[in-house]
Write a structure and sequence with these properties.
The protein is α/β, with parallel strands linked by helices and about 220 residues long.
Length: about 220
């Protein structure tokens, strides 16, 4: 299987329209994070998909940017969020925003699709770069604590795998994942330009609220 970023983009171009139809509701963890956030200037949704979380951010931010690598998913997002969000085709490892410009960010269910440790590390550093002083972000990844995997949340390292997506008609499309051990995810955050504010495991996912190191409390 081709594990380049281009291959990941192609996967979501192929499944995007169907994938969007199965992703109607915001995650409760994201709802709680946004509900606790103060009103702000600019919010960012990395891996915005069909815009379900961008819509939440639009309730608390003056400006929302939704970024995704898939044109198919951005098309679905445009129908959902209208002019409430500025949508951008882009790479999570090279965010098209200036330094210190994002007050609030959501980065869920996307980091684990980046195909190399270097890409994932670069993406976390990019998030740190764009966060403003005092800005916060919620980052989530699939973890070894998920009951789908015969592993333990106490594992020190995770693993790469593929999870098939089944399209109408029965065609299966493999999707790349890096499944993080919680301890490994903590180490990745510690090595980045981010500081961890809080960390939890919920429904087999790791969730971290982070800020940019040295930019705020």
């Amino acid at each position: 299987m081709d594990r380049s970023r281009a291959a990941v983009r192609e996967t979501y171009e192929r499944i995007g329209a169907h994938f969007s139809k199965t992703r109607e509701y915001a995650w409760p963890e994201v709802e709680s994070f946004v509900a606790d956030a103060p009103t702000c200037g600019t919010a960012l949704d990395i891996g915005c998909g069909n815009g379900r979380h961008s819509a939440l951010l639009a309730d608390v931010a003056d400006r929302v940017v939704g970024l995704d690598a898939s044109r198919a998913l951005l098309s679905a997002a445009a129908e959902r969020v209208g002019d409430r969000t500025a949508l951008a085709l882009g790479d999570a490892a090279r965010l098209p925003l200036a330094d210190d410009t994002v007050d609030l960010a959501v980065y869920v269910a996307t980091l684990h699709h980046l195909p190399s440790a270097a890409d994932r590390g670069a993406s976390l550093d990019e998030l740190a770069r764009v966060l403003s002083p005092g800005g916060r972000a919620l980052v989530s990844v699939w973890s070894t604590a998920h009951d789908r995997f015969d592993t333990s949340e106490d594992a020190e390292t995770g693993f790469d795998t593929t999870v098939d997506w089944t399209l109408p008609g029965g065609e299966t499309v493999p999707r790349f994942y890096h499944i993080y051990a919680p301890a490994e995810f903590r180490r990745a955050l510690d090595r980045s330009g981010l500081a961890t504010v809080s960390f939890e495991i919920s429904s087999g996912n790791c969730y971290a609220v982070v800020r940019s190191e040295g930019k705020g409390p």
